[in-house]
Amino acid sequence: MIDLVLPDKTHDESRQGEALLLEPVDGKNAGRKLYIESYGCAMNFSDSEIVASILSEQGFETTGDFNSADVVFINTCSIRENAETRVRNRLKEFKTAKSKNPGMVVGVLGCMAERLKAKFLEEEKLVDVVVGPDAYRDLPNLIDQVDSGQKAVNVLLSREETYADINPVRLNSNGINAFVSIMRGCDNMCSFCVVPFTRGRERSRDPFSIVKESTDLFNAGYREVTLLGQNVDSYKWASEDETEKVNFANLLEMVALINPDLRVRFSTSHPKDITDEVLYTMAKHDNICKYIHLPVQSGNSRVLELMNRTYDREWYINRIDAIRRIMPECAISTDVITGFCSETDEEHKETVSMMEYVKYDFAYMFMYSERPGTLAAKRYADDIPEPVKAARLTEIVALQQQHSHQRLQAQIGKVQRVLIEGFSKKSKNDYAGRTDQNAMMVFPVDERYKPGQYVNVMAERCTTATLMGRIIPQTP
Ligand code: SAH
Ligand code: SF4
Ligand code: F3S
After folding, report:
1. pTM (2 decimals)?
2. Which HAMAP family match (predicted)?
């Protein structure tokens, strides 16, 4: 399986399985150690911060070493079969740790917990607790149950839970970028996708709690928030008396107005729902980053219909044209699935031609992986042989690499506003940060500027995924 990994924090696979650290706090369980590891999308990483917050109130401290932990949690993803395989392999490693420390509580959280429910307890004997994404408030009780010798499961999905009042503990944070969850669940029922089953119905979080969380982050020194949802364009909130209504464009503006120095990003947009109003709001505010992740999945209208994406090739092209018209400088990325049920070579070529048309800045590309219980698994045969899926994937990965490179090359010679996020992974002599369009820029450290500050950087060179440049000092 070849996934093209590009520098987008919301899809950063290099963070997969990262352990999260939390400062010690006193409480009922004071001194007990929690280890939490996250897989999957940004929503899961964000949820782990909610879990850490709930357990820190109980006095848990976090550790980066699962061998010394009292409670080991793995926050899981079900999106493709290999995501689940990774988790099962990791659980085998926890087994050895548990055999040395039988009192250790091992818990499975997130989407796999929701999909497999109590089956997990039968299949993976070492698992003590199984908790779905809407049941994290129940964790203290569930841990108590396990402490008293029982296994514990809570996989109830909710129509209301948004954890709006929980102030997430920022784990392993650079103090500059943060995720802010604006909605949960998904009602779209794309035929290939497990998310509606693992995350439940779509619900939007109170906008005032989103603005408050973002303001608190800004006051604590953060300079970038990424608003998260499976389909941010269908964000919709109304006050009880229906006098106040907030859509995604309104919410974006509310967050952008917190401070011009707070950058706003968001993910994921849905081609069927992204409106011109959102695009004009982006264009109006300099601090809303000019970058849209707009997953196409396929360039062929028949395949899109089988996928139940509810748009066709023409509609998608119309949305791309609107973005280019309203914000010519906007970067666009996508997700593509190759070898979906019954996809012909000709239909695959339409995905290739769509990529040629848009010339995406980045793309995340996957072979179709049949997921039990989804509409596609029930209705259509997974009939494209693996080697054909793989060959189609290899072809588009190579094409995307060319496009990514071309898009970065087009930036060379231009000055970009970059938020310094820290040192480059390769050298302490270089800073790294992203441009407004989400391209990673690496440039020599200048002591006058610190992480968390904006600098103007002239792009001078690039690799296929990174720009390299130098700071152009601001003239007063
Ligand atoms: N809500 C987002 C997608 C979330 S899942 C959206 O609608 O765009 C992230 C990506 O995983 C999807 O865009 C899709 O490209 C891919 N994906 C989801 N289910 C898949 C499956 N069964 N097989 C292969 N890729 C899949
Ligand atoms: Fe899955 Fe479709 Fe919802 Fe995205 S919009 S999470 S692909 S069902
Ligand atoms: Fe995976 Fe669940 Fe996210 S299936 S992609 S962790 S919503």
Report:
1. 0.94
2. tRNA_metthiotr_MiaB (MF_01864)
Q: Write out pLDDT tens, residues 395-454.
A: 999 999 999 999 999 999 999 999 999 999 999 999 999 999 999 999 999 999 999 999
What's 432's domain CATH number?
A: 2.40.50.140
What angle is formed at CA 390 by the lines to CA 366 and CA 351, rounded to 5 degrees? 60
Domain holding 71, by residue range, is 5-154
By most ligand atoms within 8 Å of CB, the mutation choice from 186, 337, 364 for ligand 2 is: 186
Q: Which domain-ending residue is among 130, 154, 178?
A: 154
What's the gap between Cα 1 and its chain centre?
Answer: 20
Other CB atoms within 10 Å distance of the CB of residue 291: 24
Domain count, the chain: 2
Q: Which atom of ligand 2 is nearest to the CA of 187?
A: 3
Last residue of a domain, one of 120, 154, 188: 154
User: Atom 14, ligand 1: which residue's CA is nearest?
Assistant: 335
333 assigned to some structural domain: no
Binding site for [4Fe-4S] cluster: residue ranges?
Answer: 41, 77, 111, 186, 190, 193
Task: Note whether 352 and 381 are within 8 A (CB).
Answer: no
Span from the CA of 187 to the centroid of ligand 2 (angstroms): 8
Asked if residue 131 lies in contact with residue 155, where contact means CB atoms within 8 angstroms, the answer is yes
CA 78–ligand 3 middle distance (angstroms): 6
Query: What are the pLDDT digits (tens) for 77-136?
Result: 999 999 999 999 999 999 889 999 989 999 999 999 999 999 989 888 889 999 999 999
